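Please check the following for our workbook:

***
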Amino acid sequence: YYQRDYERSWIYYKKFLEMKAAYDLDIYRTEDIKIALVCSKLGMIDQSSELFEKYKVYVEHDNSIYKHLGLAVYNAYQGNSEKAVEEMKLFSQEQDYHYWTFLFLKIDPLIDGMLDNPEFMELLELVETKFWMQHEQIRETLDEKGLL
C-alpha cells in the first residue's frame, strides 16, 4: 500500500475483507480508507465509495485522540484541503500519540494531494516535533529516576 502497489495490496486486502465478512468481524475500521483508495485505484468504484463512507461514519464518531487526524486524512484525499488543514490543526493539539502516526502519515498515498500544501506540511512537522519533545521529556524523567 505505502509503495503504491495497489494490485498487490488488493490481494491481501481482499482476503482481509473476506475474513471480516465470513466471521462477522468489526475490526480495524481505520483500514477502510486505505482499502477504499486501493479499490478506487483499481476501478472498483462502488466498493471504494462504500468503504470511504464506512470510514467517514466511523471517524466522525471516533472518541479517540485520532479523530481529527482521521478527518484530516479523509478530507485530504477528497481534495478538501482547507478542511484537511483545519482538522490537522485540531489533531496537532493532541498529545501521547504513537510514533507510527507521523511516520506512516508522511508516506501515505491518501495525503499525496497535500504534499505541496505548506500549512499542512508544517502541521505534520509540528506533530513530529511534539512527539520527539515528549519522548525526550520522558527519557529525562526516567533517567532522573535511574530507570535508564
